[in-house]
């Protein structure tokens, strides 16, 4: 009888013990994310010199060519645009005069006529941030179609300012003032060192429309013979993948 009671007691204790909850199932799994960039050889559209935004490209007007400006060069390291310099129609005088280039006219992305500083635009889409150099040269003195030269005339580009939508550091070697040599010697515009200059950069002569009104000068001596004719010259902008030391 005692054995039976003892057995029943053990059974009773077994039924009284708490029931443990079953552990929830869980798991972890890792997957990957990846993107690869490559150099972009497509041309880059010009953007505003006062509000540089690649999402809102502009259409510059060339005052010297009714057909419009020359197209930009192909990438990945490209010159996208450079302003033509138009000094208007002036009266002949025996005094030394300084004439100012008209500002850059353009049509914005909303198809509204605008104007701003004259500028040159460079884009580096190589994906290396390894630097570059932009130079300019004047290809001879102003001349008429009859080869009559505007002797000793000189162009100065002042108030040079670099603007960009890029987060890459701006070019550290910049010419705030450039006096062009009509004999064809190159002048430095700006140069990005290693670790600088990835993306789109503009050298703007003046940081606003008001500043641009007198930022580019053509000085003509009073002693220079001036014929009642149109004078022209050209400029070549040269972009290389080699940085220039400050």
From TrEMBL:
Signal peptide: 1-23
Pfam families found in the cross-reference section: WxL (PF13731)
UniProt keyword annotation of DNA damage present: no
UniProt keyword list: Signal
Amino acid composition bias (Polar residues), ranges on this chain: 32-48
InterPro entries, per database record: WxL_dom
Keyword Transport carried by entry: no
Ranges where the record places region Disordered: 32-77
Positions of the WxL domain: 25-243
Designated name of the protein: WxL domain-containing protein
Lineage: Bacteria, Bacillati, Bacillota, Bacilli, Lactobacillales
């Amino acid at each position: 009888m005692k054995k039976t009671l003892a057995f029943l007691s053990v059974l009773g204790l077994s039924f009284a013990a708490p029931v443990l909850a079953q552990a929830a199932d869980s798991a972890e799994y890792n997957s990957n994310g990846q993107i690869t960039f490559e150099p972009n050889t497509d041309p880059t559209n010009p953007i505003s010199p006062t509000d540089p935004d690649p999402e809102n490209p502009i259409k510059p007007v060339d005052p010297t060519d009714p057909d419009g400006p020359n197209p930009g060069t192909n990438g990945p390291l490209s010159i996208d645009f450079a302003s033509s310099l138009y000094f208007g129609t002036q009266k002949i005088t025996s005094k030394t005069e300084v004439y100012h280039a008209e500002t850059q006219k353009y049509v914005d992305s909303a198809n509204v006529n605008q104007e701003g500083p004259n500028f040159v635009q460079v884009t580096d889409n190589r994906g290396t941030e390894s630097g570059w150099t932009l130079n300019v040269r004047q290809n001879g003195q102003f001349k008429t179609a009859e080869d009559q030269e505007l002797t000793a005339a000189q162009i100065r580009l002042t108030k040079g300012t670099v603007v960009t939508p890029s987060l890459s550091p701006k070019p550290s070697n910049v010419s705030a003032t450039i006096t062009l040599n009509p004999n064809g010697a190159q002048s430095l515009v700006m140069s990005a060192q290693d670790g600088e200059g990835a993306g789109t950069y503009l050298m703007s002569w003046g940081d606003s429309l008001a500043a641009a009104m007198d930022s580019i000068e053509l000085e003509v001596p009073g002693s220079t013979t001036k014929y009642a004719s149109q004078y022209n010259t050209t400029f070549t902008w040269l972009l290389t993948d080699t940085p220039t030391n400050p």
